Amino acid sequence: MAARVAPSLLELRRAVPTSHRGGQAMTGRRVALALLAAYMAALAIAVKAHAKLPAATVAFWDRVAACETGGRWTMHGSTYSGGLGFYNRTWEWWARELGLLDRYRSADRAPRLVQIRVAEYGLNTHRGYWGCLHR
């Protein structure tokens, strides 16, 4: 099952108001433009989520993984999982926000580059922290 990144057109259509100012109906063209704008924004987010990671970023997280778990990307524990030793609840939170949780229920089930993408997101968006981050 593919990760759900963008809402469907039907969901977008339901989210677009059918009237504005004084209850006047929106024209079909305005509805179509609003749908197109919403879909393009969702597509931009999806493209960014799948953009190639820079080699220096991958190398950095490989070093963190080597320190955290000995580089065992499939490590599974009751509290921490994956090569970067994600706290399991944190993985669920960040992977859900990125639309990846349905596909990768825990960090150990996600490929190395997906784990790195989630770690980058967590570090930059939520100020995530790893004990080996600055070693």
Give a structural overview.
The chain is mainly α and 135 residues long. It folds into two domains: 9-49, no CATH class; 55-126, Orthogonal Bundle (Lysozyme). Helix content is 51%, strand content 6%. It has five helices and four strands, in the order H-E-E-H-H-E-E-H-H. It has helices spanning 9-15, 28-49, 55-69, 88-97, 112-126; strands spanning 19-20, 24-25, 80-81, 86-87. A two-stranded antiparallel ribbon has the order 1-2. A two-stranded antiparallel ribbon has the order 3-4. A hairpin with a 3-residue loop joins strand 1 (19-20) and strand 2 (24-25).
Fold topology:
Layout: H1 9-15, E1 19-20, E2 24-25, H2 28-49, H3 55-69, E3 80-81, E4 86-87, H4 88-97, H5 112-126
Antiparallel strand pairs: 1-2, 3-4
N-C termini distance: 37 Å
CATH architecture of the largest domain: Orthogonal Bundle
Provide the CATH top-level class of the largest domain: Mainly Alpha
Tell how many strands the DSSP assignment holds: 4
